[in-house]
Write a structure and sequence with these properties.
The protein is built from five helices and eleven strands; from the N terminus they run E-H-E-E-H-E-H-E-E-H-E-E-E-E-E-H. By secondary structure, the chain is of the alpha/beta class.
Amino acid sequence: MGRRVTIAVTGGRRGSRLAWYFSRFLLGGHGAGSRFLHPGTDYRDVPFDALLITGGSDIDPETYGAQAHPTIEHTDPARDAMELYLIETAIRRGVPVMGICRGMQLLNLHFGGTLHPHIHDFDLDVAHPHTPLPLKTVTLEHGTNLHDIIGQSALRVNALHHQAVNRPGESIRVAAHDGNNIVQAIEHTALPFVLGIQWHPEFMPYSWHSRKIFAAFVHAARSIKNS
């Protein structure tokens, strides 16, 4: 099985504990240790074998040079700065990175992509739910790493977001989309494991595909550590 890996799991000072507990449970189920980092922790020199960026507050438009939007009310610039620093650190070290919801959006920004500030500004062909329950259908793109991990082309997932990826960043490809053609997953085409998921697999630990995603993430971390 190889040496035990430690995953850094990020969040805010407040409002991230639930995502942390669920993520720790899923990571631990695949033999990985985990450590919770937030802006109040000494995160700059923390050793880790992979980085998991959880969901939460909206990314501050000033973080990526965008204009303010009336729907963006709850931001955490200190968390934005921490997570961008940790993404850069993880990429430099060559360890796996997975971003969930806002974590996916931040990954896209790191690689030079852009965001839609509010998807309800568009005419949606399919109703966009806001629920922790798996009531949304997403389609996985053939030929992507995510499709290889899951092994099928359509999933029922949850949805807790109102922002979304607009233009993918450099070397970033779309790995899944929904019925409105809104990006639901991204991945890096050159780095070994950089994956963004718009839904919340950590809140569906009962789902086989959530467990597959976390298993692949831990496996990638273990493979790099033991190489």
